[in-house]
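Appendix C: a fully annotated inverse folding record. The material below is reproduced so that readers can follow the format used throughout the book. The structure is listed first as tokens, followed by the designed sequence.
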């Protein structure tokens, strides 16, 4: 992360406080959930409505990401990274399992034909 961004995240927490930023995180997560819902409802709408929903989803994602980066300052970066690695490894194992199941299903379907 660029040093100037780290400075902004730290200053936000220092100026507004941990409790305020935790409240802001819940607000931003709620807005992201709404944006996801609106985006999913836009699938069968006009291109313009889809684009607006997409842009709003990107904006709300950025807001949550900025709050997460503030939480990295509030909490412990190393602990967050440790859990992140564990979760990614678990996700990778699930992906591999799903891929293997698809391969097996396809080979069984091919044999039955």
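Designed amino acids, in order:
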């Amino acid at each position: 992360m660029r040093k100037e961004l780290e400075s902004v995240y730290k200053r936000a927490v220092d100026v507004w406080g941990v409790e305020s930023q935790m409240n802001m995180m819940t607000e931003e997560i709620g807005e992201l959930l709404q944006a996801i819902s609106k985006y999913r409802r836009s699938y069968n709408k006009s291109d313009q409505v889809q684009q607006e929903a997409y842009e709003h989803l990107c904006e709300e994602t950025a807001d949550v990401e900025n709050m997460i980066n503030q939480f990295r300052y509030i909490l412990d970066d190393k602990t967050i990274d440790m859990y992140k690695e564990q979760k990614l490894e678990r996700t990778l194992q699930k992906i591999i399992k799903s891929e293997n199941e698809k391969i097996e299903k396809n080979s069984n379907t091919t044999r039955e034909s």
